[in-house]
Amino acid sequence: MKKKILLADDDELLISLLQFRLKKEGHEVTFVSNGKQVKEYLNNTIPDVIVSDIMMPYFSGIELVDFVRNELKLTIPIIIISSAGNEENVLSAFELGANDFISKPFSPTELLLRITKELTK
Amino acid sequence: MLSINTHNPRALITAPKIHTDLLWDLSFLFVGLALLYFLFIFYFRNKLSAKTKKVTQKKKDLSPIISEFLFFEEESSKDEKTNYIQLKIEIRQFLKDTFNRRILSEVLLDLSIDVSGSTQKSLFKLYKELDLHKDAYAKLESWRWEIVSKGILELTQMQVSESYGFIIKRINDKRGTIRKQAEIATVTLKHEGISYFLDSTRYKISEWQQLKILEVLRNKKDFNPPKFKQWLTSNNKYVVLFSLRLIKHYNQNDAELSIIELVKHKNTQIKQEAILCIKEFGFMSATDTLKLIFWNSSTDIKITILSALSEIGKEEDLPFLNQIENKERNFYVKSKALSTINSIAPETIMPTQEIEKNIAHNTPDDIITSEEQDSLIEEIPENVVIKDAENPKEHMENIEDEILNDSIHELRQEELALAVNSNDEEFLNRAISDSLDFLPIVTDDENKMVTNQDSKPKVNPEDIIVNFQKVVPTKSTNIQVEYSIVTPNITNEISSLNLDFLPIVTTKVIEEKPVEINPLNLEVIGEEISIEKKEVLNVDFLPVIYDVIKEDKEPLSTVDIDILNIKNIPTISEEISSSKELISKEENSEDTILDINIELNNENKITTNTIVEEEFSIPKAIFSDKRELEMLSLLEDLNELGDVREIPLLEEYLVKEKDGIIRDRIIELLEKFYKELSTTKKEIKMDDVTTETSILEELFANTDTESKLILLNEIVAVSDKKELKLLMDLVDDEDERVREKAKKCLKQLKAQIEAKNKANSLEPIPLEYAFLEDYKAELQKNNINPSKISNLDIEEVSTITKEPSFLEQFYSFSSKLFDKF
């Protein structure tokens, strides 16, 4: 089933890779590389799932979760990508309402499975 | 006229006379220099940003291609496959440029950090397939340390295990960065890397490096650590130190003696690490050595030793520790010694500093008011007899002493002092008697109550009954009494409560109740035991498993067994009731043990294995004539001793021969030799053609004819010697078009390689070429006319990529340097 997925990460290579993988599965993927673009996108469109890196320019992943949950009042699933050893930030993200997290390095297939799991909930 | 000179006309310092033109010239010069500087800055900034943009753009262009490669599946559609082939060709063209190769390497390296699992594996594979690892090898040859380090890092990160041999050489490089990078690479690339590293390193292993190596080892999958004790004898003290840490990390406690010996090491760090190992593994035998080295050690080591002793020490070590406590001047060591003593023998040293000797235990007045006290005492029911099985005499004495002491303490100091001073015995006696008024009256008769003072010398504590009465202290104002109050709510249930804590005196001799033994119980227990024993011994419920002796049936032709004897072999058979039966039995009778009917047939008889006696029919003899016999014998000789060279002879015989049997035999032999010939050909191919496999080989294996043809159109332009084998295989392809195309390509490729070799005429003819000559001979042998191949058009494609010489490199470096400055 075709779903709208928003990918937010400043690492364009990784995002491109993930975009390719998710598109191959038939999803509609939009990617943004900084927090400002995320805000702009979310003000216009509501995706089915958000996959965001925790460290982004202008607007971190935690702020994104806060923005989605408390300002936009949306309940869409949010999956956080974090680098290893960044557990504290991940906990903060969970407290604010993130649904899942995946730690770098990760397998794109694993991310796909997590997205599918969130979408089927 | 009076003239007043206000200043001296002759100035002490005169301004230098500079020509205005010179000033202008200098101004122009400096302005020019400033402009030049800004221009340079502007130029280099633009150049750098342009380069960055170019790199970013290239990376963007490359990322979808890489994704395509990484997620390509063999089950993809035809379009995807075609697209994949096109991309392969494109990327080959793309990689001819060094800059592009560098970018692609960077992209793959970046991605390898972020991805894991199958994607990461595909990434490593792609890196090797595109020959990017060769660039990293080239970097290893550079004279610049940063380039070499980058090369090692790249090979390590992309898991190029083939580079292990090149990297280990640099473990003892003079340049620290290269050395450290090589150390990590050695440990990362192979499991045995750590052993090689510890064996061969001659330099210091920094703490940070040790941590990094340890991290690498911890993240290694299926890593079986070697016995690190073998490096405890290393000449490099850093290796010894690191080995000790690894021993501790991997819990390798089989090096007790070596570790204890290392406690005597001159190096403090090794000494400390050895002591920590002793503490960790609890080597009790190390205590003597630790005591031995204690006095000559530094404070840190002393503390570490004491810390170890607290774990492994015994009571025999206490004198040594007491000695430390008395002799040692250092406060920390002394404190540690005390703490060690306490951990070996707890509570042996009590706190002595600033401890108050006489503490008045005054109960605050507001805890129990006198009214509450009265009401509580009134509620205590009469005739409550409380038994105490403990020593009542001792209890009594203790109570009296306590009360006496407390009472005396509570007397007003002034009065007591006065009484003592004036030897007023009466006052003292009264004070004591007053203070004891509240006590329960102890008597040897239930009805007779006497005072404590009177009864005290006569009391036999074992014969005392205590009657709780309403006791009102006569002089409670001056005496504060502290005693516990029994809650009076208990009446009937009192006997069931545990009142052992109360100071009870009773006349009744407390007899130990004989243990009531119910003979029935005994019997029951006995029965249970017997049943249990029976259950343990009775193994009837277990399935009986035994070997069934099977007679191996040998081929009938070699049967030497006497059937009669076989019949005499004893066999055991079992009949196990079917599982259904068992289940039904289990359901029907829960308490009964499953009864498995095992019938052991002790009689010597064959039940299952029977040998069927067959009648053997012996074929009749066929006699050949002499010529036929000779011919057959010759053919047999050829079969045993001959090889592919016999084919022409056999073919000749086949044409001439008319006898059916001989013809069949010749055909058999010919088939055999043809097979041999094809195998030899393949072997030659495998030996002579480079062992490197083409990345296109897999593609061809999985693509259809059209894709193959598309690929063959482009293959010559992007191929090298690795594709020779592939093309040779394609010459034998099922499809005719592919075969023709492959032949053409093979010809072109050979010409291309020839041209390349001519260009590098100084180089000897490569082995591949020698093989081609052999191959031609093989083709001729198999009646493939080489002239057809030689007549094909040859497209010369110049793919000569000459490696820059040292001078050229030097020139390019100097020009780059000049550009930078």
TrEMBL record, chain A:
Pfam families cross-referenced by the UniProt entry: Response_reg
Q: Does the keyword Phosphoprotein apply?
A: yes
- Which Gene3D superfamilies has this protein been placed in? 3.40.50.2300
Q: Which domain of life is it from?
A: Bacteria
> Which residues get modified to 4-aspartylphosphate?
53
Q: Which SUPFAM superfamilies match?
A: CheY-like (SSF52172)
Which SMART domains does this chain map to? REC (SM00448)
List each copy of the Response regulatory domain by range.
4-119
Which GO BP annotation is one of this protein's? phosphorelay signal transduction system
Q: Which UniProt keywords apply?
A: Phosphoprotein
How is this protein named in the record? Response regulator receiver domain-containing protein
Q: What is the lineage of its organism?
A: Bacteria, Pseudomonadati, Bacteroidota, Flavobacteriia, Flavobacteriales
From TrEMBL, chain B:
Swiss-Prot/TrEMBL keywords? Membrane, Transmembrane, Transmembrane helix
What InterPro entries does this protein's entry cite?
ARM-like, ARM-type_fold
Against SUPFAM superfamilies, the record matches this protein to: ARM repeat (SSF48371)
Transmembrane ranges? 26-44
Name this polypeptide is given:
HEAT repeat protein
- What lineage does the source organism belong to? Bacteria, Pseudomonadati, Bacteroidota, Flavobacteriia, Flavobacteriales
